[in-house]
Design a protein that fits this description.
The chain is mainly beta. The chain is built from no helices and 6 strands. The protein has a 3-stranded antiparallel beta sheet, with no helix packed on it. It starts with 5 loop residues before the first strand and ends with a strand.
């Protein structure tokens, strides 16, 4: 992404919760998002309960920097899942 971009990233938990059809994303505990190093901005985090997805909106960052985005999600039945992905910012 470029420093002026605002992009959304979806995390799909359907496969993870396939064997537990009664479970879903927690309505009471919001997903947490940590970004390292600092500089990339987490604009918002939303949950799609019907489709078992979390959407993370990111913006900013510095040119040529690589950021690790760590998302921790809880389910109604108490399961915890931590996912990581990387975003590289390039000013073209």
């Amino acid at each position: 992404m470029q420093p002026a971009d605002e992009w959304d990233y979806d995390l799909d938990y359907n496969d993870w919760m396939r064997d537990t059809p009664s479970d879903g994303l927690s309505e009471t505990v919001a997903p947490t998002v940590q970004v390292t190093p600092p500089g990339l901005v987490v604009e918002s985090v939303t949950r799609d309960y019907d489709n078992r997805r979390v959407k993370v909106w990111l913006s900013g960052g510095e040119d040529s920097k690589r950021y690790k985005v760590e998302v921790t999600t809880r389910t109604r039945e108490g399961r915890v899942r931590q996912d990581e992905f990387f975003v590289i910012v390039r000013n073209f």
